Amino acid sequence: MAIDSKLVERIAKLSRISLTESEVKNLSSDLDNILNWIEQLSELDTEGINPVFSSFDEEEIKYRSDEINDGGYREDIISNAPLSEDGFFLVPKVVD
Amino acid sequence: MKEFSTLSIKETISSLKNKDFSVSELIDFHISSMENGRELNAFITETSDIARKKAIVCDQNYSKGEEKPLEGIPIGIKDMFCTKGVKTTASSKMLENFIPPYESTVTQNLWDDGAILLGKLNNDEFAMGSSNETSFFGEVKNPWKNSMDNFTVPGGSSGGSATSVAAGIGLASLGTDTGGSIRQPASFTGTVGLKPTYGRCSRWGIIAFASSLDQAGPITKTVRDCALLLNSICSYDPKDSTSSQKKIPDFEKATDESIKGMKIGIPKEYEADGISEDIIEYIEKGKEWLVESGAEIIEISLPHIKYALPCYYIIAPAEASSNLARYDGVKFTHRVDAENIIDMYEETRSQGFGDEVKRRIMIGTYVLSSGYYDAYYLKAQKVRAMISQDFKEAFSKVDAIYGPSTPSTAFELGDKKKDPLEMYLNDVFTVPVNLAGLPAMSVPVGLDKKNLPIGMQLIGNSFNEESILSIASCIEKSAKFDLNPNRWWINE
């Protein structure tokens, strides 16, 4: 499948990354090459194979008890925010 | 004072116990090595003051006889690990000024065992790369120049971690390995690098790249040092839901075990084209060493291994695109102001991320997008199941798998920078291991005709780091590799 600049712009929109014209051009050819190479997976018959999303043994995953044992780091968390006020993150106006 | 830089951790600890020198003297030496080695660009942040302060405490512990297992040992940490109060950048503009309010579990384990933070190490941006050329803070140079006297890459993404150890700056380092990011740089720099089984080390406090593949691990000068670091960093951590509660053995003991009677598999698929002749020569040499030590070599087959790399380049970017969604200009230091919130997100991410990171976020977003999920993402997870099954079958016949770490030795700076796909192919031997969650390590065996280190890879069965440590230790004894690059970076 060919990746054209229109598709790249759509993916960029979904990724919340703005691209310059030259970036769109370069990424079109890069992604086209990479995805064409990835296409080789289609030669494998995977009918009836159960997908594996993690190598970790699911039986080992234990639920922790539902209790508060940590927290109270509001100042720490906000300390890396580019803009904050009264312990809140500040963002540009979202609702008019 | 040269003797300091050639000592292993084991030797340093016994010298400290003997009072041959103090921790403060040791730390002063490593701080000056770090300062003299700035041309290597291995460190993003030097933490000399922290190191000097802790050295005083460590010396007191030695004089009281209360020293802990890694007391006073200077260690560099890849800038992917959160260190409390110390800038942690992931080598990205996006986190240029990020100061974590907490400490990662694996680094905390090291400090609890007496180790000393020397500085934070350069890497490929968000650990995405195989040459350490994607870092916002500039490329790292391999201490080993090639025979044409040209600079070579240290590999990546843990390039700074590998370079610092190879240059004798700090006694060991921590890296992270998502598709080979510990083993490939270890191989390129003549150091020992190990990626533990997925779940052995906590991922808590490591800046996430691909969560189902990421693992922390050590880069060291010797196999025994590697085991000593593993003893410290591996632990069960309730803060990481994929942290294992399996018993953690004494890894150092494994380095003394004989490999007599062990069955070691060599995948016939590894004889594929593209491996350099010098490396093939060393594969054969290594086989002889193993046989001389009483191991049995068995040919095995991993029929789907050639699909591991394209499979990885769906799964890793997919997970990355999701993990890196958090960098939106709201929470983490970097923001580009704009009129509305969408423009703020888009400009912040556009200017905060480098080209390779953008490329991977875009691939990941595409393969997860509506209409393509089944064809790419789900398909890749099925292929992953087939690759894991290949390994399972192989490990019903053998105790470990042996082969090269990389198809070539270190390439020249700038050589593969222009073609992302060519760069990806460098990880052909390391990536399959991450998909299956297995432990694997690279151990140096010799130099090629260009005077560059060659590393061999050992892959173990799940939660069996011990067998690969035993084999690596045996290879190390036979290879007698001399980690002694020409120290061109020191101006005298």
Provide a descriptive summary of the structure in words:
The complex is a heterodimer of chains A (96) and B (492). Chain A has 96 residues and is mostly helical. Chain A has a domain at 5-42: Histone, subunit A (Orthogonal Bundle). In chain A, 35% of the residues lie in helices and 4% in strands. Chain A has three helices and two strands; from the N terminus they run αααββ. Chain A has a two-stranded antiparallel sheet with strand order 1-2. Chain B has a domain at 3-258: Amidase signature (AS) domain (Amidase signature (AS) enzymes). Chain B contains 17 helices and eleven strands. The radius of gyration of chain B is 21 Å and the shape is globular. The model of chain B has no long low-confidence stretch (mean pLDDT 96). Chains A and B meet through α1 and α2 of A and α11, α12, α13, α14 and α15 of B.
How is the largest sheet of chain B built, in terms of strand order? 1-3-2-4-6-5-10-11-9-7-8
User: Could you spell the SSE succession of chain A in H and E letters?
Assistant: HHHEE
Percent strand of chain B? 5-15%
Cα separation of the termini of chain A: 42 Å
**Class based on secondary structure composition and strand pairing of chain A:** mainly alpha
CATH topology of one domain in chain B: Amidase signature (AS) enzymes
Summarize the biggest pleated sheet of chain B. Answer: 11 strands, mixed
Largest protein-protein interface: A-B, 50 and 71 residues
- Counting H and I runs of at least 4 residues, what is the number of helices of chain B? 17
What kind of oligomer do you see? heterodimer
